[in-house]
Protein backbone atom coordinates (compact mmCIF):
# COMPACT_ATOMS: atom_id res chain seq x y z
CA UNK A 1 0.00 0.00 0.00
CA UNK A 2 1.31 3.40 -0.96
CA UNK A 3 1.34 6.12 1.70
CA UNK A 4 1.88 9.86 1.68
CA UNK A 5 5.48 11.04 1.88
CA UNK A 6 4.92 12.91 5.12
CA UNK A 7 2.09 12.87 7.63
CA UNK A 8 1.71 16.64 7.36
CA UNK A 9 1.31 16.84 3.59
CA UNK A 10 -2.40 17.71 3.81
CA UNK A 11 -1.67 20.46 6.35
CA UNK A 12 1.12 21.89 4.21
CA UNK A 13 -1.11 21.78 1.14
CA UNK A 14 -3.83 23.72 2.98
CA UNK A 15 -1.25 26.30 4.05
CA UNK A 16 0.03 26.73 0.50
CA UNK A 17 -3.53 27.03 -0.79
CA UNK A 18 -4.66 29.50 1.89
CA UNK A 19 -1.56 31.68 1.60
CA UNK A 20 -1.35 31.42 -2.22
CA UNK A 21 2.22 30.14 -1.97
CA UNK A 22 3.36 27.84 -4.77
CA UNK A 23 -0.05 26.71 -5.96
CA UNK A 24 1.54 24.27 -8.41
CA UNK A 25 3.16 22.42 -5.50
CA UNK A 26 -0.07 22.54 -3.51
CA UNK A 27 -1.88 21.08 -6.53
CA UNK A 28 0.66 18.27 -6.87
CA UNK A 29 0.34 17.32 -3.21
CA UNK A 30 -3.44 17.50 -3.32
CA UNK A 31 -3.56 15.32 -6.42
CA UNK A 32 -1.35 12.77 -4.66
CA UNK A 33 -3.61 12.82 -1.62
CA UNK A 34 -6.73 12.42 -3.76
CA UNK A 35 -5.20 9.55 -5.70
CA UNK A 36 -4.70 7.69 -2.41
CA UNK A 37 -7.67 8.77 -0.29
CA UNK A 38 -10.21 11.05 -2.01
CA UNK A 39 -12.15 12.65 0.83
CA UNK A 40 -14.50 15.62 0.53
CA UNK A 41 -12.07 18.05 2.18
CA UNK A 42 -9.11 17.12 -0.04
CA UNK A 43 -11.20 17.11 -3.24
CA UNK A 44 -12.57 20.51 -2.18
CA UNK A 45 -9.00 21.76 -1.62
CA UNK A 46 -8.01 20.67 -5.13
CA UNK A 47 -11.09 22.40 -6.57
CA UNK A 48 -10.10 25.64 -4.78
CA UNK A 49 -6.53 25.40 -6.03
CA UNK A 50 -7.67 24.76 -9.60
CA UNK A 51 -10.00 27.76 -9.36
CA UNK A 52 -7.08 29.96 -8.29
CA UNK A 53 -5.01 28.57 -11.19
CA UNK A 54 -7.86 29.46 -13.58
CA UNK A 55 -8.55 25.80 -14.43
CA UNK A 56 -12.28 26.43 -14.32
CA UNK A 57 -13.36 23.15 -15.91
CA UNK A 58 -11.24 21.19 -13.44
CA UNK A 59 -12.54 23.27 -10.55
CA UNK A 60 -16.14 22.61 -11.61
CA UNK A 61 -15.63 18.86 -11.87
CA UNK A 62 -13.88 18.63 -8.52
CA UNK A 63 -16.30 20.94 -6.71
CA UNK A 64 -19.17 18.78 -7.95
CA UNK A 65 -17.40 15.65 -6.67
CA UNK A 66 -16.52 17.31 -3.34
CA UNK A 67 -20.14 18.36 -2.85
CA UNK A 68 -21.33 14.82 -3.54
CA UNK A 69 -18.78 13.36 -1.09
CA UNK A 70 -19.63 15.96 1.57
CA UNK A 71 -23.34 15.25 1.32
CA UNK A 72 -22.67 11.51 1.56
CA UNK A 73 -20.62 12.19 4.72
CA UNK A 74 -23.40 14.40 6.13
CA UNK A 75 -21.23 17.52 6.10
CA UNK A 76 -23.39 20.36 4.78
CA UNK A 77 -20.68 22.95 5.46
CA UNK A 78 -18.29 21.44 2.94
CA UNK A 79 -21.17 20.84 0.54
CA UNK A 80 -21.97 24.57 0.72
CA UNK A 81 -18.30 25.55 0.26
CA UNK A 82 -18.05 23.23 -2.71
CA UNK A 83 -21.16 24.81 -4.22
CA UNK A 84 -19.53 28.25 -3.82
CA UNK A 85 -16.44 27.08 -5.74
CA UNK A 86 -18.70 25.56 -8.38
CA UNK A 87 -20.60 28.85 -8.76
CA UNK A 88 -17.37 30.85 -9.06
CA UNK A 89 -15.92 28.47 -11.64
CA UNK A 90 -19.12 28.53 -13.70
CA UNK A 91 -19.12 32.34 -13.64
CA UNK A 92 -15.73 32.32 -15.37
CA UNK A 93 -16.80 29.95 -18.12
CA UNK A 94 -19.77 31.94 -19.42
Give the strand content: under 5%
Detail the poorly predicted runs.
none
Per CATH, the architecture is: Alpha Horseshoe
Gross geometry: globular
The CATH first-level class comes to Mainly Alpha
| Gyration radius from CA atoms, angstroms | 13 Å
How many domains would you count in the coordinates? 1
Oligomer: single chain
Return the structural class. mainly alpha
Structure explained in plain terms:
With 94 residues, this protein is mainly alpha-helical. The protein has one domain: Serine Threonine Protein Phosphatase 5, Tetratricopeptide repeat (Alpha Horseshoe). 77% of the residues lie in helices and 0% in strands. The chain contains five helices and no strands. It has helices at residues 9-19, 23-36, 40-52, 56-72, 76-92. Helix 4 runs antiparallel to helix 5. It is globular, with a radius of gyration of 13 Å. It starts with 8 loop residues before the first helix and ends with a helix. The model has no long low-confidence stretch (mean pLDDT 86).
Amino acid sequence: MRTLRTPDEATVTAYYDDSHKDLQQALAWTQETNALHPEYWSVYAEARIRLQLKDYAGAQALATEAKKLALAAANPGYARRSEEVLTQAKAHTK
